Amino acid sequence: xxxxxxxxxxxxxxxxxxxxxxxxxxxxxxxxxxxxxxxxxxxxxxxxxxxxxxxxxxxxxxxxxxxxxxxxxxxxxxxxxxxxxxxxxxxxxxxxxxxxxxxxxxxxxxxxxxxxxxxxxxxxxxxxxxxxxxxxxxxxxxxxxxxxxxxxxxxxxxxxxxxxxxxxxxxxxxxxxxxxxxxxxxxxxxxxxxxxxxxxxxxxxxxxxxxxxxxxxxxxxxxxxxxxxxxxxxxxxxxxxxxxxxxxxxxxxxxxxxxxxxxxxxxxxxxxxxxxxxxxxxxxxxxxxxxx
Amino acid sequence: xxxxxxxxxxxxxxxxxxxxxxxxxxxxxxxxxxxxxxxxxxxxxxxxxxxxxxxxxxxxxxxxxxxxxxxxxxxxxxxxxxxxxxxxxxxxxxxxxxxxxxxxxxxxxxxxxxxxxxxxxxxxxxxxxxxxxxxxxxxxxxxxxxxxxxxxxxxxxxxxxxxxxxxxxxxxxxxxxxxxxxxxxxxxxxxxxxxxxxxxxxxxxxxxxxxxxxxxxxxxxxxxxxxxxxxxxxxxxxxxxxxxxxxxxxxxxxxxxxxxxxxxxxxxxxxxxxxxxxxxxxxxxxxxxx
Lengths: 292, 290
Prior knowledge:
Order of helices and strands of chain A: HHHHHHHHHHHH
Largest sheet of chain B: 2 strands, antiparallel
CATH class of the domain at 67-238 in chain A: Mainly Alpha
CATH topology of the domain at 67-238 in chain A: MetI-like fold
Structural class of chain B: mainly alpha
Oligomer: heterodimer
Number of strands of chain B: 2
CATH class of chain B: Mainly Alpha
């Protein structure tokens, strides 16, 4: 009894961490299950917490041996790469405009950037399809690219924007004071400091594109992306190579994010290296709401 | 400022705004146009201001619409109950594990949405050990199923949109001035009073943002209902998807989709009016003026 009471007391004192731990475990369950499944044959549609036919690297060895899966995957990577380049370029420019300039129509521009993020994917997919039907536009890689760039832009703006807001403009002024031309200032000061934000935005855009199913399902025509392939085969049993590929993607994403974080810290340290003898007089901040 | 300088922001915004207008705003117009057509797939659909499509599409699918509200609502409440303590723990108690925990929270985003949901389908399948445990605990009847029930769909929605709840809550709690809680305690409030009268009101913006960011995508989702539910669990998203892609009844599909957009737009615009676009953008800069 005493032991039980002690355990109960411990649980009460640590309720919050225990609860948080359980919640985190819940979030990670499917990821672990996918990874485990990639190492062993499991009977179709059945979860067993052992590996019935033992541990095997077979599916990792043959991860790129399914031609249809390969084609879908290559299509997805090509699509994500193109969509990332376009949306990151366009979105970064927009973020710069929104943070650094006060202009007529700024509020409307903000609204137009926010609303797509709050729109259910099914509506975005359906409305794009409506337009493509109206113009009898052939569905395929092009329509997918147009759609993917569209839904990525808003997220790029948000990420780059948050980086720009924390930006110390004294550094640019210092460069200018030291005789750097505006272009040289941009290249040697602005860009390196902005880079982590832009890279993070690009990673997000890439992840959004390679993961998208709903909008692609509406606008793909006969083009098959990785999620569309997975959906197609999910009805009759997924090749285990898909689990290996998903795990591989997960590991790549984790590494990429870790690298961005390291880079971000370095940029922050670089920006922090300045003698703190006398705080510079603050640049009068523009009134936050006056001109929006 | 010279005219040239004043035009700079417009040049910077131009390509992006143009893209969003052509591929987001204009398609809404064509969806509205499609919704006002009548005819059949064989004869073709012609535009004739068929306003009747709107009430017809609603009355034909009241069941799925009601279900969407219920499922998305239940998933949002569950996500809030799971997320609040977690976000609180990460913001105040995590110490040096903060970054790692935040990372764990967004980790599901690094695996494909579809695969995550398919894995839940496997975990909840009839002969899975988890279902056995639930049956032993009598949470599920001895011969009962978990898959193809409302519970499974709600669980899937909760899981898939959890990060959208946790992140705004965390951002809000992180900024909370903990001295206010100390002040409340100095003034003899109990822990629960301090929470109810200081912490909770101050994190209301985060709660509202999280609720919107969870409810809206959950309301429109059809993957969870399709993979984890049966025909009895289909939501409005399933109807729109089926009408568009399988039955090709474009006018009905478009009118349903258009109404969904109108509803969500109304909610979002009211919200932005009060809270500004900042909560979606993740910063304080764009506060509302209401």
